[in-house]
Amino acid sequence: MEPMALILTALVAGATAAAKDTAGTAVKDAYNGLKHLLKKKFEGDALAQAVVDAKPEDIDKAEGLLKTKITEFSVEKDTEILRAAKTLIDTLNSESVIQGGSPYVTVGGNFQGILGNVNTEKGDTHITFG
What we know:
Layout: H1 3-18, H2 25-41, H3 46-53, H4 56-61, H5 63-72, H6 79-98, E1 105-106, E2 114-115, E3 117-121, E4 124-128
Antiparallel strand pairs: 1-2, 3-4
Helix pairs in contact: 1-2, 1-6, 2-3, 2-6
């Protein structure tokens, strides 16, 4: 997965999951860790920091701005942030499976990042959002 997509996917998925009562401590900790690193990287830019703290739907709406800020601050080259984003996605997936669900975030093949359930059959991709 490209670094930009990894960061955006982790941030939106983490915000969505952390807002739910069923989110476990590991998910909340991983999400807060990613947010902390991003806000530290965006130090001095109140707008970028506000987007990181926003609700999932607002982060989605501000995707263009966030992409610009990620590039401007070279966030996509920060290995600590990339590692935190990957850890968050892995934590979301493992917690979802433990609770009897399917993976929360599935990435593979040519996918950049997809929220929801993804089933692949002979090259066709079926996406179900739920």
